[in-house]
Amino acid sequence: MALLEQLIDALRVLPGVGQKTAQRMAYQLLERNRDGGKRLAQALEAAMQRVGHCERCRTFSEDPICVICASAGREPSQLCVLETPADQVAIEAATGYRGLYFVLLGRLSPLDGRGPRELGLDRLAERLAQGEVRELIIATSATVEGEATAHYLAQLARKHGVRASRLAHGVPLGGELEYIDRGTLAHAFGSRHAVESSDPTSSGASQ
Fold first, then answer.
1. How far apart, in whole angstroms, are the C-alpha atoms of residue 5 and residue 199?
2. Could you give the CA distance from residue 94 to residue 86 in angstroms, rounded to a whole number?
3. Structure letter (DSSP) for residue 18
4. Which residues contact 28 (CB under 8 A, 6 or more apart)?
5. Worst-scoring range by mean pLDDT, 59-63, 133-137, 202-206?
6. Fold of domain 60-203
């Protein structure tokens, strides 16, 4: 495969980038911004090699423990559970939350092979069992799978005697946190409510 074709094919791994868009990107870099293309290549290579996951919260981090988990200024009694690192960035930007996080890197989806183990829920259970967390803030998306994940998390919190709360008003059904405006997200976070946990088998999320 020719180098140009390899470049176009590589750009197509980006979300929402099809053949035509990848082709325009490749031509733009080659025709007008080769220095930018070189910087992009260097940044990609460095990130792929050095960015991993925090051992405590699973967000992206260059170090074994991320900056937030390592901070002495965060409140360890509050733990906010999110689906993605992008959701964490949204919460940090839109709210005054000063607790800690746990990033699932997905949501429960048995059909896609994503169960509790794949989401690191065994690790989350260990944190809850330590007794430091008093409130588990469930900030999964308002999708069917996000709601099923929320029910499972509420049951897990109840098992360990931890109060579970859920983001409230303003998050639309089917909405993804990273695309919600700051004002709406801040209001939803501040108006979170207690979650009544139920048998997770009734939600289809027990597998």
1. 52
2. 12
3. -
4. none
5. 202-206
6. Dna Topoisomerase Vi A Subunit; Chain: A, domain 2 (3.40.1360)
